[in-house]
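Researcher: Please translate sequence to structure tokens.
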Amino acid sequence: MKRLSVILLIVFTMCGCSAPRQAHGSRAPLIGISAAGGDVSRVDKAYIEAVCAAGGVPVIIPIITDSLALVTILDKVDGVVMTGGEDIDPGFYGECPLPGIGTINARRDTFDLMLARMTARSRKPILGICRGIQVINVAFGGSLWQDIPSQIPQSPVQHRSKNDENPFHNVYIKEGSRLAALTQTGSTRINTFHHQAVKDVAEGFMVTAMAPDSVVEAIECFEMGYRIIGIQFHPEKMYATGDLRFQPLFEWLVKESRK
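Model: Translation complete:
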């Protein structure tokens, strides 16, 4: 436990984000950010900066598959961001890999699926981004399009832009959803950099945004005490360019993490 406390202290320092105090001396919520990588666990600074700007304190959760260690970390953090990255092994949703599938990181798959399920069971809020929405969907029994260009060849939408910062295609947001309430819009343009997407939606989850070709762009679940929002695009990259339209997602996560 002492060693874990030292690790967390180092992570806070490396994040370059002080732990602001709230009213009556209470601390700001600690927001765990799932790491990417192989031998080295890493997190894009855009996630860190977006969490800081929303009033949270970012904590990098390294890629580990030790359930006891993850339980200890989750006991410390108040909410979790599931980040983007590689494709997910289709074996986790009962399919064989198709020719169009990309790089798979088996250790990270195991880590992310454990983290999503354990965080949800602890009833702590989750914001899943890009790969994060896919991990969430698979973790709760859903499936994915392994490769949109080959599996939906009739799609008129290019989902994998060469720049994941700038708005690229339209998205339609479901009226009455939490996402609609947070963004105060029913239609807008988003950035996009993916070739996989949610196919069969996990039980208990609702589709809250779609691209013009009906590819799922967001899901959410607020049943059974869960507080989960998953989005296929990258609001942290938009925040880094000064586009604040989806910063309320990080603010929602921080607010929910205070409860």
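Researcher: Any highlights?
Model: The two ends are 25 Å apart (CA to CA).
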